[in-house]
Write a structure and sequence with these properties.
The complex is a heterodimer of chains A (266) and B (406).
Chain A: H1 3-7, E1 14-20, H2 26-39, E2 43-47, H3 58-69, H4 74-87, E3 93-97, H5 99-103, H6 107-117, E4 121-124, H7 136-142, E5 145-146, E6 149-150, H8 159-163, E7 170-173, H9 186-199, E8 204-207, H10 213-220, E9 225-228, H11 230-239, H12 244-259
Chain B: E1 20-21, E2 24-28, H1 34-48, H2 51-65, E3 71-73, H3 75-81, E4 85-89, H4 100-113, E5 118-123, H5 127-139, E6 143-148, H6 149-154, H7 156-164, E7 168-172, H8 179-192, E8 197-199, H9 210-218, H10 220-233, E9 239-243, H11 248-254, E10 264-272, H12 282-285, E11 287-291, E12 293-298, H13 323-331, E13 335-340, H14 341-355, H15 361-373, E14 382-386, H16 395-401
Parallel strand pairs in B: 4-14, 5-6, 5-8, 6-7, 9-10, 9-14, 10-13
Antiparallel strand pairs in B: 1-2, 2-12, 3-4, 11-12
Classes of the chains: A alpha/beta (266), B alpha/beta (406).
């Protein structure tokens, strides 16, 4: 069983956490990733910084700028991933970012680097199914999961196209909007997840706007996973190179809420 | 007069059904926007086939914008340069002072057709923002313009114009606070308000179908110019010249002539301080990549991080270019060159003195290229350049560059 499949087969919902690689510096990221794992995250998303993060709200925009400002290169992100894999052989690691840094040297190059670094999956914000040829075939050939996004505007007719060729999990973006802003109404999330799970054979994780253990628990009651990003990135912004402690603390609270959500513990 | 019919080998059949111009173009957008982009394409196909849509577009262009714009032979500039005859398509005489309004009229009619009730747009120099605010006032729709905070500071008169026209101007502080950051922010707004909002993109770039529909709306320039030139001289021009930022005025002029084999074309990018220094010449100094919904030539580093463009002309100050130009460059149908800030400034003054026309700094780049190429051509040959905007907006920055205190 792949690392990603295992993470969603623990008999409880999974916590998926995101931080931007190289924020605040490439050297500081390892400790932050370790804090996520120690706090109980089941899947780690490592953001590849980009100058023009069009789908991100202010928190992750600034994280991208801090990372690039610290001189983070694609080679640094791959080195961070490689080192993470050596320290954590069992924890799934997903690269998340934008098309241009991923494809600039060719999709085969990127897929091969992902394999070398021990990366399990890739989320590319701005490659919809219509442009799959840009990245999808290379990743699938290399055995890397292409994790696609579904959104409130992805209707029933369109969902099969989104699911086709994707694997690992489906990332349901609960709001039509950018990262880190308002969370969607819980009722709309419940309805959407139920609808998507009728078609999806892969796990469904829900993100965008999830900041607190309470919100995470409510989503975990219906979804296979909960994604938290901006709230963790905010801690990195506030604590910089000392962020590992606060990141671990929030992750632990989120993990506890998500893992026990269906036991009615909260 | 022979119509330039489209053949299977036509240069005018792009893009393909997936919005690709060769390897360029496409629809590289977040999933949230994808269904809307598909709707827009469907609705645009219907509008294109609807005579009532075309009639309303034509009527507004005639009575509101002031089309057709004149085709003008520039006798003193021609004499000064001592070579080919220089003619101008006078799109600077349009309402709002540039070609931008042609596209805005077309897009707001589409927005209304689609039942959208709120308009957003990005702007760099402010010309597209003013044109968008203008059509929003004309049709009574609320309008939000995203403009880099740096540009808000350098383009105060246009900010005031937009406000007079009832638009809300949102200064964007992300990134360097220029055009590409304004476009990022407009895309973020659009994703969050996709149910009621139409994004009027200002140039022939962005996700399919924008490059196609902006080109089609701007093609009025080339269609008019072609008919006018045939009527006036009985022949086609030998060379077309137009400035390129995103490239909408250039593609609007070039496209109707693409299958006229005898007509050469020259697109002029902004070389800023020089191609070895800061510039905005994506074709000359960039390579293919993906940004703002399309694959095209971009200024970027080896990791694919986008590099800010620089030009004296805020309208050319963009690190990308419309995907059809990238394709036309690759297949060799259109030649592309670049001119520096200094050359554009010289050409700006030359046109003022020889023809009594104050051009915008964007077409001043085209004029600078004309200045170089006209003397190498015969006196029986014809150059047609697009005078895509007037220079009122630029007198402050020109004065500053010339060391004059106003």
């Amino acid at each position: 069983m792949s690392r990603l499949s295992s993470a969603f087969s623990k008999g409880r919902p999974a916590l998926v956490t995101f931080v931007t690689g190289g924020d605040p510096t490439p050297d500081a990221t390892a400790a932050i990733l370790d804090a996520l794992v120690e706090g109980g995250a089941d899947v780690i998303e490592l953001g590849m910084p980009f100058t023009d993060p069009m789908a991100d709200g202010p928190a992750i925009q600034l994280a991208n700028l801090r990372s690039l400002g610290a001189g983070t290169k694609t080679a640094d992100i791959l080195a961070i991933a490689t080192a993470f894999r050596a320290r954590h052989p069992e924890v799934p690691l997903v690269l998340m970012g934008y098309a241009n840094p991923m494809t600039i040297r060719g999709s085969n190059w990127f897929a091969a680097e992902c394999v070398k670094a021990g990366v399990d999956g890739v989320i590319c914000v701005d490659i919809p199914p219509e442009e799959d040829a840009e990245l999808g075939p290379a990743l699938r050939a290399a055995g890397i999961s292409l994790i696609r996004l579904a959104t409130p505007t992805t209707d029933h007719a369109r969902l099969p196209a989104v699911l086709e060729g994707s694997s690992g999990f489906l990332y349901y973006v609960s709001v039509a909007g950018i990262t880190g802003m308002q969370q969607a109404a819980q009722a709309s999330i419940d309805e959407a997840v139920a609808r998507i799970k009728q078609s999806a054979t892969i796990p469904v994780a829900v993100g965008f706007g999830v900041r607190t253990p309470e919100q995470a628990a409510a989503i975990a009651r219906v979804a296979d996973g909960v994604v938290v990003g901006s709230a963790l990135v905010d801690l990195v912004a506030k604590h910089g190179t000392n962020a590992a402690g606060p990141v671990k603390e929030l992750t632990a609270a989120l993990a506890n809420a998500v893992h026990s959500a269906r036991k009615g513990a909260l | 007069m022979a119509m330039n019919a489209q053949t299977p080998n036509s240069f005018r059949n792009q893009p393909d059904e997936r919005g690709h111009f060769g390897q360029f173009g496409g629809r590289y957008v977040a999933e949230t926007l994808m269904p809307l982009i598909l709707d827009l394409e469907t609705e645009y196909r219907k509008a294109k086939a609807d005579p009532a849509f075309q009639a309303e577009f034509d009527d507004l262009l005639e009575h509101y914008v002031g089309r057709p714009s004149p085709l003008y032979f520039a006798p003193r500039l021609t004499e000064e340069l001592g070579g080919a005859q220089v003619w101008f398509k006078r799109d600077e005489l349009n309402h709002t002072g540039a070609h931008k309004i042609n596209n805005c009229i077309g897009q707001i009619l589409l927005a209304i057709r689609m039942g959208k009730t709120r308009i957003i747009a990005e702007t760099g120099a402010g010309q597209h923002g003013v044109a968008t605010a203008t059509v929003c006032a004309r049709f009574g729709l609320p309008c939000v313009i995203f403009m880099g905070a740096t540009d808000v500071e350098r383009q105060k008169p246009n900010v005031f114009r937009m406000k007079l026209l009832g638009a809300e101007v949102v200064p964007v502080t992300a990134g360097a606070g220029t055009l590409k950051d304004a476009m990022n922010e407009a895309l973020r707004d659009w994703v969050a308000n996709v149910h009621n909002t139409f994004y009027i993109i200002g140039t022939a770039a962005g996700p399919h179908p924008y490059p196609e529909l902006v080109r089609d709306f701007q093609s009025v320039i080339g269609k008019e110019a072609r008919a006018q030139m045939l009527a006036r001289t009985g022949r086609l021009p030998d060379l077309l010249v137009a400035a390129i930022g995103g490239g909408s005025n250039a593609i609007g002029l070039f496209h109707p002539f693409l299958d006229d084999a005898s007509v050469r074309m020259l697109g002029v990018e902004a070389a800023g301080h020089g191609l070895d220094r800061e510039h905005a010449a994506s074709l000359a100094g960039g390579r293919p990549g993906i940004l703002h919904g399309n694959k095209t030539y971009l200024l970027q580093d080896e990791d694919g991080q986008i590099i800010e463009g620089h030009s004296i002309s805020a309208g050319l100050d963009y690190p990308g270019i419309g995907p059809e130009h990238s394709w036309l460059k690759e297949i060799g149908r259109v030649d592309y060159t670049s001119v520096t800030d200094t050359e554009a400034l010289d050409a700006f003054q030359l046109l003022c003195r020889t023809e009594g026309i104050i051009p915008a700094l964007e077409p001043a780049h085209a004029i600078a290229a004309v200045k170089k190429v006209a003397p190498t051509m015969g006196k029986d040959q014809i150059i047609l350049a697009n005078l895509c905007g007037r220079g009122d907006k630029d007198i402050f920055s020109v004065a500053e560059h010339l060391g004059v205190k106003l």
